[in-house]
Amino acid sequence: MRRSLAGVALAVTSMVALSFLIPLAALVMSLVKEQGVTAAEQRAAALAPVLALTTDPAALRESAASLDAAEHLVVHLPDTGPLGRSKAPAELLERAQRGRESISQEVPRGWICLQPVVLPGEQVAVIENFVPEEELTRGVKESWAVMLFLAVGLIGGSVLVADRLGAKVVRSSKRLAQASRALGQGDLDTRVDPMGPKELREAGVAFNAMAHRMTELLAVERELVADLSHRLRTPLTALHLASERMAGTPESARVEAAVGELETELQAIIATARTPLAVGPMGQGMLAAEPPTGNRAAGKGTPGPRCEAAEVVRRRTAFWAVLAEQQQRCCSLDLTQEPTAVGLSEDDVAAVVDALIGNIFRHTASGTPFGVRVVRTAHAVELVVEDGGPGIPDPDRALSRGSSTGSTGLGLDIAQRAATATGGAMRITRSPLGGAHITVTFALATPSPTGRGPRLSRRRPTWRATRRPRT
Fold first, then answer.
1. Average pLDDT of the residues in 119-140
2. 14, 129, 203, 376: which is deepest, by most CB within 10 A?
3. Are residues 288 and 313 in the same domain?
4. pTM score of the predicted model
5. Strand pairing of 307-308 and 370-376?
6. Percent of the chain's residues with pLDDT above 70
């Protein structure tokens, strides 16, 4: 590109220089020639008054000697002949004498000026002034050399400036191309420093925005894979409990092995999806970032998802109550009778309930009691899940995604991000039952356009597990 820009500058500047240089050179030559001819005519005219006063050869020679270029001045007297070496053609002399006209004409090797002078007695003398060709071109070559030097300097300067300007464009283009290749090879952290012309700066800004957006989209994809894989743990837990009930049967060992293998593969999927980016030759790798959830994914002005949190909690707790009965776990459920519309889909709320209760089944011993409660406040809905297990010794670390020991750490993160998506929060304290007390707060959803939300079923669930009074 630099060669192209330099070539364009060279061509354009050369054309401009030639368009001015050629007429200017001709003008200089014409001016020098005109000055020489004018000087010759003035010398001839200066000698004319002397010739009108006297025709004495000695006086005429003395007067001619006082003028510049006297060696080229010749006086043609009517009777005595020329005083000096004449270079005028005979026909021009005769024409000047007979016609009594001044003649200024180019002749071989120079320019001739003939000035007739009428003497007493109607005789005509002619003053001849010859200008050599060297006098007509004196200083022309030097002037041409100066103009040529200036033209070359102008062309060289324009090419240099074009090359410097092209270097900035090329440098910016190369950096943008290198960053594009690096991004294509999987280096998602690559960015460019916008520089160069306005268009290239805008291209650099657009490239950085594209790379940032690509990183976000890949992060969303990886976290979605991890979250969906974690949701599969709920039916996996049911299968695991079912295999325990089959203990002692011929099929129990095979089912238990299949469940264990499935759990191992699921654990590997979650761990792989949550591994920091490791770029290979073709750009394979994983990312970890916060994906948009719930209302954050909804566009401005577009109604987001909504559901009755208490109804979803009731259905999912009924599912877990069956498993609780199999493990001799006492469970309790307390649901508010007020509307509990939140800005999440039923699947999102169900994932929160499954994650929190599933953690109880995975990390506490059989027979550990737990309770679920939904409370409606002035501006929020609180989901409380507590158990009688060992509790969570380090709540801050547990709320950091992937930091929980002995697990993937996604369960609490799913609940926290769902709460944050509605403008709520999550906190972990010690339960009166002795274990963990997890409170997930969802902000109430805005009223629906009709002003009526889905009504909560007031039918309380019937548990097969033995209820234990709350303490």
1. 80
2. 129
3. no
4. 0.43
5. unpaired
6. 74
* 464 shares a domain with 332: yes
Domain end call among 125, 140, 155: 140
The answer to whether residues 263 and 123 belong to one domain is: no
Q: Which residues pair with 335 in a beta bridge?
A: 374
Place of tokens 């000695």: 58
| Bridge partners, 131 (sequence order) | 111
74: left (phi over 0), alpha (psi -120 to 50) or beta: beta
pLDDT tens string 142-200: 888 888 888 888 888 888 888 777 777 777 888 888 888 888 887 888 888 888 778 88
Domain boundary among 259, 292, 325: 292
Q: What is the mean pLDDT of the chain?
A: 76
C-alpha to C-alpha distance for 299 and 301, rounded to whole angstroms: 6
Least confident of 147-151, 425-429, 465-469: 465-469
Is 162 contained in some domain?
no
> Taking a C-beta distance cutoff of 8 angstroms, is the pair 126, 94 a contact?
no
Q: Which two tokens stand for residue 296?
A: 């954050």
| Amino acid identity at 71 | E
Tens of pLDDT, residue by residue over 189-231, are: 888 888 877 888 888 889 889 888 888 888 777 777 766 666 6
81-120 b/e (C-beta count within 10 Å ≥ 16 → b)? eebbebebeeebbebbbeeeeebbeeeeebbbbbbbbeee
Instruction: Provide CB contacts within 8 A for 327, sequence distance 6+.
Output: 241, 361, 366, 367
More confident residue, 95 or 227: 95
**Stretch 450-459: mean pLDDT:** 45
282 and 384 co-located in one domain:
no
Q: What is the pLDDT of residue 15?
A: 84
For residues 304 and 298, the answer to whether their CB atoms sit within 8 Å is yes
The number of distinct structural domains making up the chain is 3
The dihedral sign for the CA sequence 318, 385, 374, 345: negative
Residue at 420: amino acid letter: T
What pLDDT was estimated at residue 69?
A: 59
Compute the residue count for the chain: 471
**Helix, coil or strand: residue 201:** helix
Q: Which domain holds residue 312?
A: 304-471
| Separation of alpha carbons 353 and 79, rounded Å | 140
What CATH number does the domain containing 82 carry? 3.30.450
Angstrom distance (rounded) from CA 97 to CA 255: 140
Q: Which residues of 78-142 form beta strands (DSSP E)?
A: 81-83, 103-107, 110-119, 123-132
Instruction: Give the CATH number for residue 453.
Output: 3.30.565.10
Q: Which two tokens stand for residue 215?
A: 């990183």
Percent of the chain with pLDDT over 90: 12
444 and 314 share a domain?
yes
